[in-house]
Amino acid sequence: MILVLIDAARLARAGYVLAREGVLSLVSPAMVPPLARPGLRLARLIARPDAGTRAARLSAALSRLGPSYVKLGQFLATRPDVVGASVARDLEVLQDRMPAFGQTVAEQTVVDAFERPLSEVYAEFGPPVAAASIAEVHKAVVVERDGTRRTVAVKILRPGIERRFSADVATFRRIAAFAEKISAEARRLRLTTVVDTLGRSVTMEMDLRLEAAAYAELAENVKDDPDVHVPAVDWDRSAREVLTTEWIDGIKLSDRAGLEAAGHDLQNLARIVMQSFLRQAMRDGFFHADMHPGNLFVDAEGRLVVVDCGIMGRLGLKERRFLAEILYGFITRNWRRTAEVHFEAGYVPSHHSVEDFALAIRAIGEPIHSRSADQISMARLLSLLLEVTGLFDMKTRPELLLLQKTMVVVEGVARGLDPQLNMWTTAAPVVEDWIAQNLGPVGRLQQAGSGIGEVGRFVLDAPVLLTRAGRVVSQLDEATRNGLHLSPETLEGIGAAEARRAFWGNAALWVIAIALLLLALK
């Protein structure tokens, strides 16, 4: 009962903030049940007169509600199947900016994390340069054993954030469970799974050691890519609440004027951004899932520098093959093959018709080919594709939705640098290279080698499996040799169960008989 009251209070507060910031005023009365329409009229009365655009209203409301809601909004931007494509686009621009929590608190966090005085960890420790819902970043200086001074970026976890997130996510989970009980659409969208995914994502984000590991893995994957750089992690000065990385002196990709003034080739930068993301997703199966312009810099060497690895995405071989063949199928207008990929990946249930699904995909693909190349959006393509698959009982695939969301952002960044960028020409080398490596003769040989390895492992395990099977057969033979014997307790339990069933069966017959008698008397 206490939890119900707490959830009700939190919902009431959230409802008031959404109403006050004008978010609920955007909802059409026709889309809500009749009983809720008076509440919608009340929400319009208390809305701010200067609420602004829908994106501005959403951003203001979620920022007022706090870090948990900001993260929820950012996460829902990856789920157009839940909130709708237009709302998802508005949420994509949600800025994760919160007030700094103070220099004194940050310094104490460092002292507690390393159990040493601040001066022994950092020679200089400056004020915060950025603050978000999870953490804030400081500029600092470290002195190496040889006396070398090095500038670093120090990310510090916001105090008390784990407790607050835990409480809010628990509320989100209970609300989602209630929605699934009363709504078939909520069950199809698997809202509890959505909340669980959000909870796991935020939990991992709040352990900065995991972000450090993500930096290291991404850096290892792109070490041979000459046009991409990932800041190095200072492991000696990183802990659960503190992450220290190489400081980047670069120009943000959002600063177009600064990039032009520095003489950078914007068209080449657009190509690097797009191809780098596709290589991460398709070649490595591990991609930066928050590639907005604030997390992308260009250094003096003209390299793309990626920071903030708190949110990463993973794709298995099946998902990478799906992405490659989908893009290639649309490029070549092979609708049948594109449809077959969905069935082979297990995304569309087998009871549906491949031909019908191919027809639905053609309805998406043909209009694309009537446009010029610079008007075709791969992100929009994936969005439409996921909408169509909903008609064919394709269950929610969180990893593909995260991929789609990131592609939307990356495509926007690339086209911001070069509005005439031909996405297909830019993507083709990466896609074709992956297909040649994995679906061509070389890839087939590698798959065959993997299959032989699996067979070998099975052969090695076969004696153990046979021994276990023989033991089970012997035990079964011994148990049944003289018939099955049940213990007195088991027999007594069976008798009691039969007695209860007989009692209720007889009671039901008496009720029916009395009802029939009453009807006959009437």
TrEMBL record:
Pfam families: ABC1. GO terms for molecular function: ATP binding; protein kinase activity. GO terms for biological process: ubiquinone biosynthetic process. The chain crosses the membrane at residues 503-521. Residues 123-522 form the Protein kinase domain. Pathway: Cofactor biosynthesis; ubiquinone biosynthesis [regulation]. Keywords: Cell inner membrane, Cell membrane, Membrane, Transmembrane, Transmembrane helix, Ubiquinone biosynthesis. PROSITE patterns: PROTEIN_KINASE_DOM. Belongs to the protein kinase superfamily. ADCK protein kinase family. This is 2-polyprenylphenol 6-hydroxylase. The lineage of its organism: Bacteria, Pseudomonadati, Pseudomonadota, Alphaproteobacteria, Hyphomicrobiales.
